[in-house]
Specification:
CATH superfamily of one domain in chain B: Alpha/Beta hydrolase fold, catalytic domain
Radius of gyration of chain A: 38 Å
Strand content of chain A: under 5%
Largest sheet of chain A: none
Number of strands of chain B: 12
Structural class of chain B: alpha/beta
Mean pLDDT of chain B: 91
Distance between the termini of chain B: 74 Å
Shape of chain A: flat
Number of helices of chain B: 15
Radius of gyration of chain B: 23 Å
Strand content of chain B: 5-15%
Oligomer: heterodimer
Shape of chain B: globular
Low-confidence stretches of chain A: 45-50
Low-confidence stretches of chain B: 364-376
Mean pLDDT of chain A: 77
Helix content of chain B: 40-55%
Helix content of chain A: over 70%
Number of helices of chain A: 9
Distance between the termini of chain A: 113 Å
Order of helices and strands of chain B: HEEEEEHEHEHEHHHHHHEEEHHEHHH
Structural class of chain A: mainly alpha
Largest interface: A-B, 43 and 42 residues
Largest sheet of chain B: 8 strands, mixed
């Protein structure tokens, strides 16, 4: 099999064939359109000039395409293009590698720690919680994933794209904090069940097990309440609540910015504009009320001691 | 760990018995829930006699002769609604006051919207409250009136009384936080950790639902689990269901708190504890508690998990008044107003305390005016 035959099914020859075919097809199409527009009796839109302009533009594009296509079909150019296309997966792999590594690291850490969650905490103790699963996720996200959302944006719409990316970033961080908060809030339920098991075992040994289901519920509720009280006083819980509220606030601000961008296109005032207006109203009303009060005080003073105010006109 | 030897047979027998009871209860409950229920709250008639922005002043229609020289203005918190004082006829502080012949006014703070987010403590105290006090003074031709505050509304009343002492005859504070440097209540612990600036900047006003979620989280075992288990156990009892729904209506009727007020309340009070240190600035004036020279009655609940005793019991030691009294009831934050026991202790004691301090300071002014202008 010679070189030509070997390459017959290769990407270069396929691309060359496609370029030639498409060039011929669009060339014929342009010719047919031009001929059709000259046929007598064929409907022509009232703004024929406008259509003609579109047609001219179309023909110009086609001419450019027909000029480029043969050049692109040259073996040298084709080879370069194919090389470029060929390097795409490599580029993507390079880009994705850190993210994938991060994901694997997270998986590994998660698996390592998931099995230890119950073991590493003891009843009514919340000081040394194994919150590393969330910490690891946040670290991996911040190191590996976040950078994709912080890629510099280009062009006319770069600001809006940046706002979108920022909101996505804030949402991810908020969701991570929220997940940590929810897991923390659920922890007392887990612990109370574990404590119940221990209590029941002790009671069974001493033959004091309750016989009514309501007693078991009361016992569990009391245990649960105790666990919650201990948790809520722990610094870990307070830090998590504060972080969740902070990240929620940051996400809401970023979300608001996107809404603002969208509302700008619509004939409605944005929240920022309304807030500015409210602020102006607030300041104006406050000034008016102060003036009214001052006027009333002056009036009362005048009525009580007119002699003191004799030099001034009587207020209305 | 060995498996506990639970008496499964006994438990199953008990569960079977319970299941029968539940079935019977569910049948009765459906009858109760499907029939008309009286769950209206705040039914005592009143007139709105003053309005400013979202704020209204309610004047309750007297149901007996007015037997007090000085009317009473009640200022509720910005969190939840003043309807709690009039939940139902049998448990209504409002009705107890009216039955005793008190001329009663109450501030309804309304529902703040986004346009109210700039309102500060100064706007509430030196603005709305002062205008309302002046309105009542003018209406009754009196130099002073009685003032009673509830929770955060009590804190506003303390600030107001320090800044406008000459307008207040007697001051009553109920479950009112004034000392915020305590770890007794979870709220005090949590508030020290929150970033009020960030919250207000992102949320505008503080959403009532978010605050309610926070309050539920103070004791989820009781407030999210046990409370509704209790409801299920009693849902065949019509009066219980009606009371329960009334309370649900009140507790989840939560207006938002104006952002700037929330910001100042958290930063200056919860985090810096400026009020009790006489360093709080409101409207450019320092709030000096020693200027509170009128009689002061200070009520609080021993089991209050929102405003614990340590947050309330310092006030009387810091004011300038020589006529002060602390009363700690064995109840919680809401129970002080709605529990049956409190109905017998709380409002009657306030009435008695006010009656003992109802004499006009200047006999040539208020007494004569009251005789010339008796109100019914």
């Amino acid at each position: 099999m010679d070189e030509k035959a070997k390459d017959a099914g290769g990407p270069a020859s396929m691309l060359e064939a496609w370029l030639k075919t498409s060039s011929d097809f669009w060339g014929s199409a342009v010719k047919m359109m031009a001929a059709a527009s000259d046929v007598p009796g064929v409907f022509k839109p009232p703004f024929y000039g406008a259509t003609g302009r579109a047609q001219e533009s179309w023909e110009a594009s086609m001419k450019t395409w027909r000029a480029i296509a043969p050049v692109m079909g040259e073996p040298g150019a084709l080879e370069g293009m194919i090389k470029g296309i060929g390097s795409m997966p490599e580029l993507l792999v390079k880009l994705m590698k850190p993210a994938w590594d991060g994901f694997l690291q997270l998986q590994q850490e998660y698996m390592n720690r998931a099995g230890r969650i119950g073991k590493s905490t003891t009843a009514f103790k919340f000081e040394n919680l194994d919150r590393d699963v969330f910490k690891v996720w946040t670290e991996v996200y911040e190191k590996e994933f976040r950078q994709f959302l912080r890629l510099p944006q280009l062009g006319l719409l770069r600001v809006y794209q940046e706002h979108l990316s920022e909101a996505a970033d804030r949402l991810n961080v908020f969701e991570a904090s929220m997940a940590e908060f929810l897991s923390l809030v659920y922890l007392p339920v887990e612990k109370s069940l574990k404590v119940m098991q221990e209590k029941l075992a002790e009671m069974a040994d001493s033959g004091q097990l309750p016989q009514r289901s309501a007693d078991y519920y009361k016992m569990w509720l009391k245990t649960l309440e105790g666990h919650y009280m201990t948790l809520f006083k722990s610094p870990e819980y307070n830090r998590t609540v504060a972080r969740t509220l902070d990240t929620m606030g940051e996400f809401l601000v970023a979300k608001q910015r996107i809404l603002q961008d969208m509302l700008q296109l619509l004939p409605v005032p944005t929240q920022r504009e309304m807030d500015e207006l409210y602020k102006e109203l607030y300041v104006l009303k406050k000034r008016i009320k102060e003036l009214e009060k001052k006027l009333e005080t002056d009036r009362n003073n005048y009525l009580e001691e007119p002699a003191v105010y004799a030099h001034a006109k009587e207020p209305a | 760990m060995a498996e506990p030897k639970i008496p499964v047979d006994l438990l199953l027998a008990s569960l079977a018995e319970d299941a029968e009871k539940v079935q019977e209860r569910a049948k009765k409950a459906s009858d109760v829930l499907l029939q008309p229920l009286d769950t209206e709250i705040a039914t005592t008639p009143y007139d709105v006699v003053y309005e400013e922005d979202r704020v209204k002043l309610k004047h309750y229609r007297p149901i007996t002769d007015i037997t007090f020289n000085y009317p009473l203005l009640v200022v509720y918190a910005l969190i939840n609604r003043e309807t709690m004082l009039d939940l139902q006829p049998g448990r209504s502080v409002v009705r107890t006051f009216l039955n005793a012949g008190l001329d009663l006014y109450m501030v309804d703070w309304g529902y703040p919207t986004r346009k109210d987010k700039f309102l500060t403590i100064d706007d509430h105290v030196n603005g709305y409250m002062d205008n309302i006090v002046d309105f009542i003074r003018k209406r009754h031709n009196l130099p002073k009136i009685n003032l009673m505050g509830i929770c955060m509304g009590g804190t506003f009343c303390v600030i107001y009384s320090a800044l406008h002492a000459h307008k207040i005859k007697n001051l009553i504070t109920t479950v009112t936080p004034t000392n915020f440097d305590t770890d007794q209540g979870l709220l005090h612990i949590w508030m020290k950790h929150i970033d009020a600036d960030r919250m207000v900047d992102s949320l505008g006003n503080m959403p009532g639902d978010l605050m309610n979620f926070g309050f539920l989280m103070l004791n989820p075992a009781r407030l999210i689990v046990d409370k509704y288990v209790g409801f299920l156990e009693n849902m065949d009892n019509k009066p219980f269901v009606e009371n329960f729904i009334r309370m649900e209506k009140w507790i989840f009727d939560s207006p938002d708190v104006p952002g700037e007020t929330f910001r100042q309340f958290v930063k200056d009070l919860y985090q810096k504890n400026l009020l009790i240190k006489n360093r709080l600035m409101v409207g450019g004036n320092r709030v000096d508690l020693s200027r509170i020279t009128m009689p002061l009655l200070n009520y609080y609940g021993r089991f209050d998990h929102l405003v614990p005793p340590a947050a309330c019991d310092q006030l009387t030691k810091h004011v300038g008044s020589v006529d002060t009294e602390d009363i700690c009831l064995d109840t919680g934050h809401i129970g002080i107003y709605v529990s049956g026991k409190s109905q017998r202790q709380f409002a009657p004691k306030i009435i008695e305390w006010l009656r003992q301090r109802d004499q006009p300071e200047d006999e040539n002014s208020a007494d004569i005016r009251m005789q010339a202008n008796p109100r019914k």
